[in-house]
Structures are given as C-alpha cells and as structure tokens.
C-alpha cells in the first residue's frame, strides 16, 4: 500500500508534535511545520524517523502567504503526494502582536493554506481543523477576555472552512473538525491559568477530567485516518461555559 503523507502545522511542540508522532506510529510520513523553534521541530522529526517514517521540517509562518506556498510545493516535490493536512497551529495569546493577528492566523491563514493544499492533495485526502470547545461554542462574553480574540477568530476559521466544504469535496478532499476541552499540560492552559488563577483545577472539577496532550493527539490522528468520521469530533467533556484553550 502507498505510504500516506501528512503536513502538521505547529508541530514543534504540544498537541501538534504529539499528533505528528501519533501519525508516524500509524505509518504516515510527516512534514513538521513550525514558525520559529527549529531545534524543537528537528527533535520531533527525529522521533518520527525513529519510528521508521520519513520526516521533513518546514519553517513557515502561516500568515506569510509566500512561505506557505513554498511549503506546499516543497512537500509535494519531496514526497510526490500530500494526503493529510492537520491545521493545528494557532495563536493570538502572544505578547506584542498586532490587534488583527489572531484573525489573520486563525481564520485567514487557515483558509488560504487549506485552499492551496486542497489543490495539490490526493483524491481521498483529508483536512483536519483543530479547535477548542471554547472557540467552537464561543459567543460574546462567554470566555476569558484574554482568550476572546482567539476564540472568535478560531470560530470564524472553522466556519469559513466548513463553508468551503463542498469546494474541497469537489477536489476529493474531506474536512473534519476536532474540538478539545482544556488540555492538561499545554502551555496555553498554563497561560490561561496565569490569567485566571485556579482555572485549570476549576475546570477539572467541573468536567470530571481533562484530556491529556496524548488523548487529544490520538483523536486528531484518528480523525485524519478514519474511513467515515463524524464531521465534528469532541474530545473531553462538553458543557456550558467550558474555559478551554
Ligand atoms: N492547549 C489547549 O488546552 C487546547 C485545547 C483545545 C484545543 N487546542 C487547540 O490545539 C491546537 C494546538 O494547541 P497547543 O496548545 O498545543 O499550541 P501551542 O503550544 O501554542 O503550539 C503552537 C504551535 O503552533 C506554532 N505556531 C504558532 N504560530 C504560528 C504561525 N504563525 N505559523 C506557523 N506556526 C505557528 C508554534 O510554532 P513555534 O514553536 O515554532 O513558535 C507551535 O508549534 C490549537 O489549534 C488549539 O486551539 C488547544
């Protein structure tokens, strides 16, 4: 059987890195995208190679259209095919970013990358958009103020991608959304807990448990490879007022 290839955005750490490793365990060759942290991306690529799969690293800030175009072209020219696109990278909590950065990254850049990739993906390919319950269910005032621009822009990104589902399908590419509760052990969860001390424990108590990075990555990799997955997959408890990353 032909080996499938996946491009995972934001795979230098956290959920993206764990997803890349989970896909490698399931026999997929990888492109590890990152923005800045080359050494971390290389370490993830080494882990993938240690599992017997091929791995390339690709530096590209997803808000840079030229860099994204080159990343797609070099993926296709290196592997000859692109089967899976995992839209994991996300941002907006960083210090010193422009006011519209969250929207540019979490909506505009996701749509641009998905459209570019869908044009080059194999028939039967799949795009997985990774999001949080907090973004999926976002409505004004329903989240921490510091997370509101991220939640609003990720929700807008999800909706913009779902609006294009028929166009992706016409190219033989399916779309799945995977939404997670607050994920234990992530930097994002720690940043939010710093903004609202006690948040992680409160959420753990209310939800019953918090998924780990491995739990979430397992669901994302599973969604990428499943034959007939649900269109939206929820990981962790879903309820009213989920303070998640
Ligand atoms: N953390 C949670 O509790 C939680 C809960 C539910 C859903 N999620 C979702 O899971 C995904 C990953 O979250 P995470 O917490 O693992 O994220 P994270 O730790 O903040 O990692 C972000 C990754 O994205 C990359 N990145 C950031 N900005 C980028 C850009 N402009 N262009 C390209 N790459 C960029 C980073 O690369 P560098 O390291 O090179 O900067 C890094 O690899 C997100 O979609 C998030 O919404 C997270």
Automatic annotation (TrEMBL):
Belongs to the short-chain dehydrogenases/reductases (SDR) family. PANTHER family: DEHYDROGENASE_REDUCTASE SDR FAMILY PROTEIN 7-LIKE, RETINOL DEHYDROGENASE-RELATED. InterPro entries: NAD(P)-bd_dom_sf (IPR036291), SDR_fam (IPR002347). This is Short chain dehydrogenase. Keywords: NADP, Oxidoreductase. GO terms for molecular function: oxidoreductase activity. The keyword Zinc does not apply. SUPFAM superfamilies: NAD(P)-binding Rossmann-fold domains. The keyword Zinc does not apply. The lineage of its organism: Bacteria, Bacillati, Actinomycetota, Actinomycetes, Propionibacteriales.
